[in-house]
Write a structure and sequence with these properties.
The protein is 31% helix and 17% strand. The chain has helices spanning 11-22, 64-74, 78-85, 98-111, 141-151, 201-213, 234-239, 291-298, 323-326, 351-369, 382-393, 421-440, and strands at 4-7, 27-30, 54-57, 87-88, 93-96, 115-118, 130-133, 156-162, 165-167, 177-178, 194-199, 266-272, 279-282, 309-311, 314-320, 332-333, 336-341. It is α+β, with helices and mostly antiparallel strands. The chain has a six-stranded mixed beta sheet with strand order 6-2-1-7-17-16, covered by helices on one side. It has a six-stranded antiparallel beta sheet with strand order 10-11-12-13-9-14. It has a three-stranded antiparallel beta sheet with strand order 3-5-4. It starts with a strand and ends with a helix. Helix 2 (64-74) runs parallel beside helix 10 (351-369), helix 2 (64-74) runs parallel beside helix 12 and helix 3 (78-85) crosses helix 4 (98-111).
């Protein structure tokens, strides 16, 4: 059998390769790293986590992304298996030790007898063979231009920002304290999932002033600042109103400062970033401030006055296609049906969503190559809601990257009266699990 070629070894490409190989189809996984570097990646490993080490909520009963975790596990997903093996304490979230996680994904893929790897940059859309393009938000310029030329449509783009990472030993724990929001952590280890740095009103106001005044990265000519709302730089949030951060990533609710009985006006949370507990990322603090400005501004945070940074924040261009106009329900390019797209380049946002679309693309391609068809999952499942959104459910004129959320699902029939939010979300997940199990079988 001829092989399935997959371009890109990120979350989507890795999951697509695994699913296709598990279905008995030989795979060639093409990855340009480390021969061709990106500003955001540090290694040549597959499934390297760049922006964050979190797969977000693992609650599969009342959370849409937790439901997506459940569906991927039910489908034998490699990304979820490795994430679970390398998880870190994070309250109700699924956070992972990013380097061992990526190394484990790489080892599993390279040891699979039906998967071979090719390290080079693919610069042109192929005219023959079976292909999945899973190049993610950092698609190389030459391949992006080939996609644009083939589709006749301009690639859409927004800017995605990276949060800084702090060395834990440099945090002043006489000011900061360990606690998960609402005390969701149960064990002593889980209580080290988050550090909290409190601010009073005067400190918060001075911090906002500093963010607004800080020197920012400029955009290149022809680029536009079309940010994805789920990953806004903190300075963009601050520009929307002085209280925006205090009701967003700096909200003080659910936290009690053991050093001071006075409730903090705002709180900066840092989430554990590795198993050793030596690194913590500043939650929700994606930024386009220049490096010197970042160091000065972040050291204004109580407890971080002497902080050392393992990585400062950054910003990069995130490219995606207008999937509702370009892809069919099998994720194939309508003008070239031998090519599928998967992952963030299709207009889903987030590690989990990207891997889920890779899972579907890999299964669909493998089935087609073996003479069969895998229909899309029902739209009342998490995967089904996402693929429905990107292949026709969204308005092509206003199409923007989207996280999985219950707003993408068909409404629940609230028999016997309107359900409360928690009951409604539980009804969504119960219905989805039944539908997904039926689809799998």
């Amino acid at each position: 059998m001829e092989p399935l070629h997959i371009i890109g070894g990120g979350m989507a490409g890795s999951e697509a390769a695994w699913q296709a190989a598990q279905a008995g189809v030989p795979v060639v996984l093409h990855e340009m790293r480390p021969q061709v570097a990106t500003f955001a990646h540090r290694t040549g490993d597959f499934a390297e986590m760049v922006c964050s080490n979190s797969f977000r909520s693992d609650d599969d009963e009342r959370n849409a992304v937790g439901l997506l975790h459940w569906e991927m596990r039910a489908a034998g997903g490699l990304i979820m298996e490795m994430a679970t093996q390398h998880r870190l304490p994070a309250g109700g979230a699924l956070a992972v030790d990013r380097d061992p996680f990526a190394a484990a994904v790489t080892e599993r893929l390279k040891s699979h007898p039906l998967i071979s790897t090719s390290y080079e940059e693919v610069t042109e859309l192929p005219s023959s063979g079976h292909w999945i393009i899973a190049t993610g938000p950092l698609t190389s310029a030459r391949l992006a231009e080939s996609i644009r030329a083939a589709t006749g449509a301009e690639a859409l783009a927004f800017f995605d920002a990276i949060a800084p990472i702090v060395y834990a030993e440099s945090v002043d724990m006489s000011v900061a304290w360990m606690q998960s929001r609402y005390d969701k952590g149960e064990t002593a280890e889980e209580q080290t999932a988050y550090m909290n740095c409190p601010m009073d009103k005067a400190q918060y106001e001075a911090f906002i002033d500093a963010i607004l005044a800080a020197e920012k990265t400029e955009f290149h000519e022809g680029e536009t600042a079309g940010y994805f709302d789920g990953c806004l730089p903190i300075e963009v949030m601050a520009e929307r109103g002085r209280e925006t951060l205090r009701f967003g990533p700096m909200k003080p609710v659910g936290l009690t400062n053991p050093h001071n009985p006075v409730k903090p006006y705002a709180v900066v949370q840092l989430r554990r970033d590795n198993k050793l507990g030596t690194l913590y990322n500043i939650v929700g603090f994606q930024t386009k401030m220049k490096y010197g400005a970042q160091t000065a501004v972040f050291k204004m945070i109580p407890g971080l006055e002497n902080a050392s940074f393992a990585r400062l924040g950054g910003i990069h261009r995130n490219t995606f296609i207008n999937s509702p106009t370009l892809l069919d329900e099998q994720m194939r390019l309508r003008s070239r049906p031998n090519i599928r797209f998967a992952g963030q380049i299709t207009g889903v946002e987030g590690y989990v969503e990207s891997a889920a679309m890779g899972l579907l693309a890999g299964r669909m391609a493998a089935a087609e190559m073996r003479g069969g068809v895998v229909p899309p999952p029902p739209p009342d499942t998490a995967m089904g809601a996402l693929i429905t959104h990107i292949t026709g459910g969204a308005d092509a004129k206003t199409f923007q990257p989207m996280n999985v959320n219950f707003g993408l699902f068909p409404p629940i029939d609230a028999k016997g009266g309107r359900k409360g939010r928690k009951d409604r979300y539980k009804a969504y997940t119960d219905r989805a699990k039944m539908a997904f199990a039926a689809w799998l079988s």
